[in-house]
Amino acid sequence: MLRSRRFRAVFLCMALCLPAVSCKTSDDAKMLAGRLTTAAANLGDYYATLSGIASENVKLERLQQATMGVPFGKQDQAQLQDVQNELQKRADAAHALADLGMAFSGLTGSTAPADVAASAGNLGTELSAVQQLPGASYAPIALQKAGQLLTQFAQERDERKMVRQMEPTLNALSETFSREKDAYNSINRTYIELAQAIALDLVNKNQVDPGSLVEPALKPFGLTSRMPSATVPQGLQDYAKEQIQNEGQAQIAAHAKASDALETTLKNLAQNAHEVASGQPITKHSLKLSTVESWIQMNSDSGKHSH
């Protein structure tokens, strides 16, 4: 609750600092706030889901070690844990941004400058905490600087400068996502390919029950399958392998589409922020986030991540 009040305070400052702009600009600012809320919420859920996948990767690596003898040392485990933690930091920052947008959309009261300063300082600290993703070549320096500036402005209580920092903050978020997108795709692809390798090995060792593959033929009649205890028919083994390959490729493609959609959305939000800040009419980009929501739901259904 305290965090929510802080975020409302920041956007109250924004509203009070922009009394001279036209009604059209005010309407555009509200439109931007609505888009920001929706997009940032999706971004936060995306990062949280990807963080969950990094966590599942640790389990898969350990399983592969147990079933196939592939080495998995403490250093490898620590690196995956660092990846998970960094992705969760990004999720927390994105959800904070969604809170900001929501607070601005429903702004009605007034708050003391000290609360605004404290809120900006906390937001700045959170952004500054985001570090380089392990294994990635890009360091999110622009995002860190945006956080540092927010913290600095909070100390100075320069509210107008805090307002102006919204645009570079969105630019930094957009740049960070674009520069790290290949790493996100790699994390998801590595997870799927590792799961495929283990699943195929288990099929080859006759340690997979393919009963779900014949379920569509039996379900209309309320029947369940019973596989022979000794071996699974070769045809069903081949079908299971085909399912593993096809589903894996579909999930890799679904993630790629989700990350592409988020990259475009963040760039459009940064453009809209510049338009609102400079008094230009806002460009009405449509938020095409259904692929993001579908990918998140796909992983939620399979039990990889829960909010």
Structure overview:
The chain has 307 residues and is mainly α. Helices cover 76% and strands 0% of the residues.
Short description:
By secondary structure, the protein is an all-alpha fold. 76% of the residues lie in helices and 0% in strands. It has helices at 2-16, 23-68, 74-105, 113-128, 141-156, 159-164, 166-204, 211-218, 234-277, 290-301.
Principal-axes shape call: elongated
Please state the structural category: mainly alpha
Rg from C-alpha positions?
A: 24 Å
Distance between the termini: 19 Å
Instruction: Write the H/E string, N to C.
Output: HHHHHHHHHH
Q: What would the average pLDDT be, to the nearest integer?
A: 79
| Distinct helical segment count | 10
Poorly predicted regions are 1-25, 106-116, 156-163
Question: Major beta sheet, specifics?
Answer: none
Number of strands: 0
What is the multimeric organization of the chains shown?
single chain
Portion in beta strands: under 5%
**Helix coverage percent:** over 70%
